[in-house]
Amino acid sequence: MLGWGWMAAPGPCTVSAALQEHLRHLTLQDFPCGLGSWVGSRGAQPWMWIGAYRAVTEEDVPLGEESPEALIELLKDQHSPWALPPGCSPQDQLLREVAVLEPELVHGSNVFQVLRSLRIVDKGVSAVDAGLLQLQQLEELILSANHISRVTSANLPRTLKVLELCCNAVADLQDLCAQPPPELQHLGLGYNRLCGPLQDKCLTAAFWPNLVSLDLSFNNLTDLLGLVSQLSSLEKLRILVLKGNPLALIPTYRGFLVDSLPKLSILDDIHVGLDERHQFLGLASEPGQSLTRSEARVVVSVGDMKGVPDPSTLQQLADDSDFPVITYSYCVTYEFVEGEDHVLGGPSVLRKENSLRGFLCPCTAKVFVTPGKPWEDIIHYSYRKEHIVKDLMGLKSYLAAGTIVSVVEEKVLSWPVEADPEENIDRNKKGPACKDKQKKKKKSCELRSEPPIRKTLGTRKVTLEALLATEDLVTALCDFGTLMTEEPPLSVEEKVRSKKSKDKSKAPKAESKSQAKEKASTSAKGDRDWGWLGSGW
After folding, report:
1. Is the pTM value of this prediction over 0.70?
2. Which residues form the signal peptide (predicted)?
3. Domain ranges of the chain
4. pLDDT per residue over 498-516, tens digit each?
């Protein structure tokens, strides 16, 4: 371990501790870096900077020592045992070369006067401590993918120009805005926990007079009007990233920002052109109801479906009986977050509220069903529904989790009104004479339908996360695999053979009771599988 005097007993999760560990892995004091027998008497003589050492020839190097060129080559060769460890930056390579050419510059605490860029990524850091103030030349600080929840601006070097805190747990900006670095040009706060309206004036020119780039992507910001009122004071702001926030789901979001921030060059990683500015001219003065109400609109469309097995082929294999009359229909179900709904192009039936996979999405969803269609080679749905959602946080969670799409078969058995299904079964067994009478009465017979029998033929998850970024449309082709609607009925020979085998088998009563329990258990499981769709169809 290197003993840096300025870091007195640093905590295990501070930036100082992570920096100390990182420098230890760079081995700046060990061969081929630093001072040692391999540099001999020239160790105290600086070799200027990189490139100057090439004037030194092998004849000038005493026996038992190494030339700077040979030492640098050991650092650069990827197959060398002294090559950089994985995950190091170009700044680390430069630091090691300085440790070869001018080892005194990086000896002990002198190394902190050389560092201009510090990159500590995914090291479990949870606190930005005062030890950073010793890095008096630091201009770039990257602390992505750590566990930082608060940043005390008093612990940041005043020379800082880039501060990247992406993928942390920052939920409050008050401490960061107390004494921010005055020369800061980029502030990265993407993928943090900022939510709701930000504190008053936290992102104004009073704190960030030189800010050029601001990344607030994938937080939980909802107040677009309040945020723009703060950002409009940042006269040097040219790059802004807000995608992934609930406020970015508002239909007029981009146009409102483009018109409100006329100096903006890049919004959500997309260049802002003159045509776009002309298109949205005047929108800032008339934001519209969707913006003032903070509501989003999502349209769900279902096109065609093919590949469903023809149920009539199974009916033809069954006994030639007139009743029951069996009809089949097919529909598509999908889950959507709760909200006000408007139908475009056809009715939609709301089925049942349910929790949208609570472990994925902490919001309540409903199951929507397309109108049932009879079987065809290609079933045309032409379904289109517009959902208006005011809960932007819930919509963001829903899009991040994705939706579940299912194909459902509905089977309906119909019997004559004057008789119940059991009587019809008895009549079908009386013989051909009875069947002839039934055929004569068939035309005038009024049918009574049983409750529909529903079966899920296939289920797939559709990913919608692209809608949180810059995409306006997600198109998915769902492959449900091989669909089996029902098992084909047994032929007459198979029925006779099955009946004989049952007569021959003489199972104990206890065993038959056990089998009955197993069948009942299987039936109950089938009911639970379908229970999430409810019985109100």
Report:
1. yes
2. none
3. 296-489, 499-537
4. 555 556 555 555 454 444 4
